[in-house]
Amino acid sequence: MTSPEDLLDELRRRRTGDLPTHGGRTLAYVFDSGLDGVDALAAQAHALASSTNGLDPTAFPSMLRCENELVGEAAALLGGGAHTAGTVTSGGTESCLLAVLAAREARPDVPRPRMVLPDTAHPAFDKAAHYFGMEAVRVPVDPVTLAADPSAMAAALDDRTVLVVVSAPSYAHGVLDPVAPVAAAAAARGIRCHVDACIGGWVLPHLDAAPFDLSVPGVTSIAVDLHKYAYCPKGTSVLLHADAALRRPQYFASAAWPGYTMVNPTMQSTRSGGPVAAAWAVVRHLGREGYAELARAARRSTLALAEGVDATDGLRVLVAPDSTLLALTASDGGLDVFTLADEMLARGWYLQPQFGFGPSPANLHLTVTAALSGQEDALLADLRAAVDAARAAGPVVIDDGIAAVVAALDPDALTPEEFGGLLAAAGLGGGGGLPTRMAPVNALLALAPPRLRERLTAEFFGRLQQPVLPAEQD
């Protein structure tokens, strides 16, 4: 038996190879308030409730009360009223899935129902369509603003449409879609309208943002993640419906067996109370004014970075940010953003590469949190140095022969052996493990159309995610 101390030491050693989760230098995936004591409070609350089970709220009424209070906080922040109903979920994807499921289940008369969404909507909705046998109709966004086009969205509605989706803001670019006209068009045809505010819902109410929440006529549901800008531990999001009747189709119940009658408001059955308790404690601790200060700090940092990016030779902000997300891209052909991302990582900053799609060129995404406040000049100085280094290195050049192989690949017929050969030909090696620089991988993936890129990425991750048998473990 291995001692607890040795196991914790080993875990700490392994964590040294991860991106930092605190300090504001990882500008995707993690959210840091920068405030002392918040993580400790969350950890203690999590430990107190981790063994409870949200499967049966009558068995653990403490967790039911925490969930209801979190829903109430979200409803008060996001335009909810006396009839608003909500659910705490495990994250934004589950909230999106449930919003789609409720819309589908509410219209059993519609064969292969459709949802209409802008090209910039999160792929969680495509996942929902895949899981639930629906059709996702993606509509091109305005090529300049990169926001949803209300006229085009309205034109895409038909008798099979059961849901319309807009973002507040879009993840890729930080742009707030025009919610009001899209929701009005949906309401005129009796169609639900869901607002994906997973990343912006706890920030935008504290900024000078256009109306986007349940107070907007026609909006029937909205999702906000607590583990994003509410700075709670991973595993909590809130899905709000304008009233309980809209939420009801989301529930699954079964009494068709000899055991207990199962009733689930979420995709999960058993749910640890740990994340719920941790979120409840953090939200109550920080309070409305505390979150307003954090949102304003992140917004100031975002605007300062945007100004600095635009003043950097070779770079530009892709589109003016409406919230605390930023996308930067090259302003000339001499700078490769994928190489720039590697150079920034070498300087201790993670900026997330995003591939070109439609009017959006290849770019780097930054999720700016309150922890970055005061470090803007340091980031911009490293960014300028990274630009110089990336220019000196030049863009990754893919051999014409490899490019031809990629162009000829059929994503539905690609074998793992073919993928291994492609990696080896690109100089990336045929075995598992992470490459030291991702620009060669991203340059290769950028050659592939989206369907092929999906398959290539799945194969790449499949090679990373391999079992380590007990005999091979440290």
TrEMBL record:
<feature type="modified residue" description="N6-(pyridoxal phosphate)lysine">
    <location>
        <position position="228"/>
    </location>
</feature>
<dbReference type="Pfam" id="PF00282">
    <property type="entry name" value="Pyridoxal_deC"/>
</dbReference>
<keyword id="KW-0663">Pyridoxal phosphate</keyword>
<keyword id="KW-0032">Aminotransferase</keyword>
<protein>
    <submittedName>
        <fullName>Aspartate aminotransferase family protein</fullName>
    </submittedName>
</protein>
<dbReference type="InterPro" id="IPR015424">
    <property type="entry name" value="PyrdxlP-dep_Trfase"/>
</dbReference>
<dbReference type="GO" id="GO:0004058">
    <property type="term" value="F:aromatic-L-amino-acid decarboxylase activity"/>
</dbReference>
<dbReference type="InterPro" id="IPR002129">
    <property type="entry name" value="PyrdxlP-dep_de-COase"/>
</dbReference>
<comment type="similarity">
    <text>Belongs to the group II decarboxylase family. Sphingosine-1-phosphate lyase subfamily.</text>
</comment>
<keyword id="KW-0456">Lyase</keyword>
<dbReference type="InterPro" id="IPR015421">
    <property type="entry name" value="PyrdxlP-dep_Trfase_major"/>
</dbReference>
<dbReference type="InterPro" id="IPR015422">
    <property type="entry name" value="PyrdxlP-dep_Trfase_small"/>
</dbReference>
<keyword id="KW-0808">Transferase</keyword>
<dbReference type="GO" id="GO:0019752">
    <property type="term" value="P:carboxylic acid metabolic process"/>
</dbReference>
<dbReference type="GO" id="GO:0008483">
    <property type="term" value="F:transaminase activity"/>
</dbReference>
<dbReference type="InterPro" id="IPR050477">
    <property type="entry name" value="GrpII_AminoAcid_Decarb"/>
</dbReference>
<dbReference type="GO" id="GO:0030170">
    <property type="term" value="F:pyridoxal phosphate binding"/>
</dbReference>
